[in-house]
Amino acid sequence: MLRLSVQETIERYRRHTKSETSTTFRSVEQNMQHLKQEAANMMKKIELLEAAKRKFLGEGLVSGSIEELQRIEQQLERSLINVRARKLQVFMEQIQQLKENEKTLIDENARLSEKHGIHLGIATKDQNENQPQYCAESSPSSDVETELFIGLPDTRTRRLSHQV
């Protein structure tokens, strides 16, 4: 009787695994069919997108109707508006970043000038459009003589010899 029970258990196990195997096989087969359909659909979408891309690049427009050409033109205009808006946004972000950098540099310059005892005057907003003006004290190393010479270099040397 024990032997029969073990034999029945083995038989039930075989039937169970056989049905699971066939169910799993059917499931895998259905999944494969679904994936093949998805791949075919994706290939069609890719072909349509490539055709649209070629048209946006101006290729293959010979066979296009007036309505299709107008749709493409409108889409390109909308895209151009989006590109210009993004460009403006990037410029504004860069300007804001540069203003922050300017403020940081002005603050650092003022701190360094204060540390070294140099008077730093900053023009008001009306004067020179917020550009800093430096009024540093004269030192022997910063004294520079400048003169304007007009003419060829050899005439400059003659004038210098006449002036001395």
TrEMBL record:
Residue stretches making up the K-box domain: 32-126
Coiled coil region boundaries: 25-115
Cellular component aspect of the GO annotation: nucleus
Keyword Iron among UniProt keywords: no
Key words of the record: Coiled coil
Gene Ontology MF: a single term: DNA-binding transcription factor activity
Name of the featured protein: K-box domain-containing protein
Native source species: Phaseolus coccineus (Scarlet runner bean)
